[in-house]
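Batch manifest, entry 17 of 40.
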Amino acid sequence: MIETNSYKDDDLLELLKKIWNGKLIILFVVLFMMLCSLIYIKSSHQKWVSTRVVTTIEQTKINEIRYDIIDNSDYFYNNLMFDNYLLPATFLNLYINEFNDEKNKTTFNNQHQIKLNNIDTLAVKKISNISYLLTNSSSSKQKNITILNDYDKYINKVSREKWIANLKGMIKNNIIDLSYNLKAEKVIEKTKIKLAIKNTENALKIANIEGVSSPIPDIDSTNVIYPISLGSKILSKKLAILKALDKDKPNNIAIDKSTYKLDELKNIKLDNITLPSYFEFINSNNIESHVEGPKKTLIIVLFVFIGLILGSAIVLIKSKYEKYHD
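Output type: structure tokens
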């Protein structure tokens, strides 16, 4: 029994000796595998972070909704409503990357002067300074990252959870406000059209009775309740256009579509993220991927371990081959 253990110990020592003698080969294999790990990390389409920020699916959906609503704003007489609700000031933690646009910086500044009253955990002066810097800084990415880092460090000194809750509350309230305003705008537009139809119908009746078929240039139609001076022919065309608008008005379509999109937006989960990390994530070349990747060090350690195993195996196979030929 003792001899058996002795033989096992001798075999183990012999094995370790062979591995040690082949240390240069093992070192070469380990270095080669380490190089492979670095190449893999560099060429991988994954975003190498320990925690996923926002998936590309979420980001794409949010952008589609936002741009869709902004496109629809062209249908409205006054699209300032959209500027107030849909630019990065509202969705600060989702669209921080858009501060490269001067208009968005200005909107960020103006919007937060109003909204800061709702965030009692933040110092108004500090945030005003940050928003001023964002408004007046150059569009360089590094400058914005520096400012956002400063902003984020300050946020971390106060209650982050409360800040996140307030920010999400702001977003939710803005969505509710916008939905309400969209519906109100729809009612106003409908009312305007119906009033115009009624006035035009009355004017057409009077024009027909009076025999006014062509426009009368000497009368200013803006000074009368019903624009009789336009004549029955033009009034008939105007009435047809108004009725068509009342039936299927682009404004109503845009409002309904935007309201529906806002309902979609409510269902998108917002992650508690830090501003600089998202800023860097959204501007990285790995935006196509939404797969969470392991940390770089973990990949390197794994490849080194594989290198040790592979190197040792090569040394032992080489030793056995040499022994066989001897």
